[in-house]
Amino acid sequence: MSAIKKSALGKGLGALLAENDTTEIHENLHKPSPASPAAAVAGSISFIDINKIDTNPFQPRTDFDELALGELADSIKVQGIIQPLTLRKLNDNQYQLISGERRLRASKIAGLTEVPAYIRTANDQEMLEMGLIENIQREDLNAIEIAISFQRMIDEVGLKQEELGERVSKNRSTVTNYLRLLKLPPVVQAGIRDGRISMGHARAIINVADIDKQLWIYRQIIEKDLSVRKVEELVRELGKKAEPVERKEPTTMSYQLKKVQDELSSRFGTKIALRIDDNGKGKIEIPVLSTNDLNRILELLG
Asked: Which of 60, 156, 192, 240 gives the lowest tally of CB atoms within 10 Å of its CB?
């Protein structure tokens, strides 16, 4: 590698473009002058003022690792932005992000005033679909974020599971497995999101119909650091045991009581049964699945 090439590698996209005298590149990658701002052409790469870029309201990601953003910002300071952002033009002075929010956030941290971007024409539905697909294909997206993105594509874009699979290059069974994660209790979903349990653990848990048992298995995984195989064995053992007699909930429950019951269930991480008669008398039932479970509940009760 020549000295000129080695020098160019450390200067980022802007420097590489400036040193390349190919006519086609200069026609398609331009840096608008502040005195005479050039209109960004759809399909080309332009340098856009970072303050003129609005974030994507359809962004499926809700969690950005601050340390990783800092590392990306450091890389951008040295190498520049290698992969341009994708934007749509709202008007002469404003753009909206379609994909590349991590790069945009890191660029702001790095102190950049403008960033290279592709300009595309897209309506709201196309923006949603492009943003979702771009994020789904990222390796650092957790399983719950993928599942939520899949569900949004079904609900908001109107795709069927087969069509969704085709768009994201996954078979229907894979799509179904992700969507099933959203049926797990919130505390288990949070465990998947935060990396406390794996997708394999979750797929084993979801084969158990009873929510209390799902929560008990989840706590066993955390407390005993169970492998996926151990969890699968535990699920099979539970399946062999007789299912407890299902207790019937009161035929009528007011919205207020149902809300209280749901809040208690969320607080204690287990399915609470609130039984109140017409006279306002009743009881609260908190299931206990083990000694450790009892100690956990007692701690919550103070």
From this structure: 240
CA distance 181 to 174: 11
Cβ proximity of 235 and 208 under 8 Å: yes
Tokens of 242: 């007789």
Residues 23-78: tens digit of each pLDDT? 333 333 334 433 333 344 444 678 999 999 998 776 656 567 788 888 889 988 88
Q: Is 101 a catalytic residue?
A: yes
Considering the candidates 24, 66, 71, 101, report the single residue annotated as catalytic: 101
Q: Domain containing 202: what range? A: 198-240
Strands 114-120 and 85-91: parallel
Which of 123, 154, 183 marks a domain boundary? 123
Is 164 buried (19+), middle (13-18) or exposed (0-12) by CB count in 10 A?
A: buried
Who contacts 191 (Cβ-Cβ below 8 Å, separation ≥6)?
A: 197, 218, 222
Nearest alpha-carbon partner for 175 in 156, 197, 152: 152
Indicate the number of domains in the chain.
3
Pairing of strands 53-54, 282-285: unpaired
pLDDT in tens, 262-273: 778 777 777 788
**One domain for residues 20 and 118:** yes
Is there a contact between 146 and 178 (Cβ–Cβ < 8 Å)?
yes
Which helix (H) or strand (E) segment holds residue 147: the answer is helix 143-155
pLDDT tens, 44-57? Answer: 678 999 999 998 77
∠ CA 110-113-115, rounded to 5°: 85
